[in-house]
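so the lab meeting is tmrw and i was supposed to have these ready like two days ago... anyway. pasting both below. for each one the top line is the aa sequence and the line under it is the structure tokens. i havent really looked at them closely yet so no promises
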Amino acid sequence: MNLASIENFVEGVKDLTVLVVGETIVDEFVDVSYEGQSMKSICPVFKLEGTKTVQQGGAQAIANHLYDFVKKVDVITNTNSEIVKTRYVDITDKKKHVEINKFETSNFFDIKIDTSKYDVVIVADFGHGFCDKLSITDGFHLMCQTNSNNFGFNRISKWKDSKKKSACIDLREASLQVNRKISKPTERDILDIYNYELNCQHLFVTTGKAGSTYTNGKEIVTQQSFKTEIVDTIGAGDTFFAFACLTAHLNEKSLLIPSLAASLSTTWLCNEKSVTKQLLKEHATKYL
């Protein structure tokens, strides 16, 4: 692979119309400093430092990564105030001390989508109920995320009756899917995951620091992760998914573009920036 792969990808997706459907998550980062432990109860004590950063995550972050690459991106999502994740972060080392979540899902509405109206339809199901109201025709790209709020209850097999162009899951989601813990997936493991209630053409499995794997049920392609100076890994999986959907649409079996994009997104805090053509090319010159 070389830098020409980036140019070919950019040229191949520039005229696409894309729809992103799913929950938008507001990510709040509140700066604090640790003051010690309460003398009267067993709990840590923090001092608010007066700085709060607010970012758009979830489905909107996925759309933001694609705006610079395709002709048009539409988004169907909830309002920005219904799902909020507030993280209290130490100003000295940027480590998260505690996270507080707010979910107000009573206003979610029924949605009907005809996938034939777009070149690429992306469904990002973060398990907070928005996508449970979705009626959609076959032919979309799916991520169905497992997190602390829905662990074990938002398995991707709940979409098994829909024929999908691609699906993207991580190792924990893959383990839940086949009912056994997978730490270092073999080719047999990947094929087992592909054949178990996924009903998709392309499957992407992300394996964190180990990289990622692709299969179409016959061929298996692996990609090592790119070693960067990591600032934050939050949102890297969503970034990978965004670009995997486009490579799947192009029927490419390479994991280069999604992996590079995900690697790039770890060089900033959560979703404070979005991937652009220029940033991706600059990042690629360090590795290709």
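ok protien two:
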Amino acid sequence: MRIALGLEFDGASFTGWQTQRAGTGVQDALERALTRFSNSRLATICAGRTDAGVHATYQVVHIDTVLQRPLQSWIRGVNRFLPPTVAVRWARVMPDDFHARFSARARRYDYWLLNDPVRPALLAQRVGWVFRSLDERAMQEAAACLVGQHDFTSFRAAECQAATPVREVTRLDVERQGRRLRVRIEANAFLHHMVRNIVGALVYVGVGRKPASWMEELLAARDRSQAAPTFAAAGLYLTHVQYDPVLELPPAEDCSPCP
């Protein structure tokens, strides 16, 4: 039986999603909990591997098991053995050909920026921080240049192992909510550090270091060295994974890390 689990987690204390020798990945914490719950080793496949310090409100994983338990048990029972910063939100029985990664049609990330003269304390591990005033209209103008299918080499980490730098961004919005800004990006898939590199470039535009038109130049350059530095992981959240609606997976919920 193939089961899909929906997870949320605070990534601040983890070295990313992927399992590590030291057992410090989110995957390690989940698989330890699954082992204790099921008394068997259950391997997990996720929709998207997140970096160290990155959070999720809608990570999807699948497991294969012969264990017959009510779906509610896969939530309450597994959560009993998870650390406080990780929780299973829902569980569904899936068709045998469902794959958390390869069945995904699109993914959505939100990046939260705190635009405030004073650095955050309570939110230090949950938001990116910019002390200079940000022009969200200029940022939105720059963001619009990246919508569509493009070669995103300029926004790709040097260690990225993707076979191609071409991705299709279907949405990229910058929205101010008081002293908070949310950068929301949806795409069919993402390159390593792609969102954080885009946010870094948008911040350059927002503080006036570069004009909005610079984003088009960066895209055309296909040269990471010409772009802005990678922005901090703390403000990044995986907030939705889109699958075929016939699967009837739970919808994503909007959430904000800021008061």
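from a quick look at the 2nd one: The first helix runs from residue 26 to 38. The chain has five helices and ten strands. will dig more after coffe
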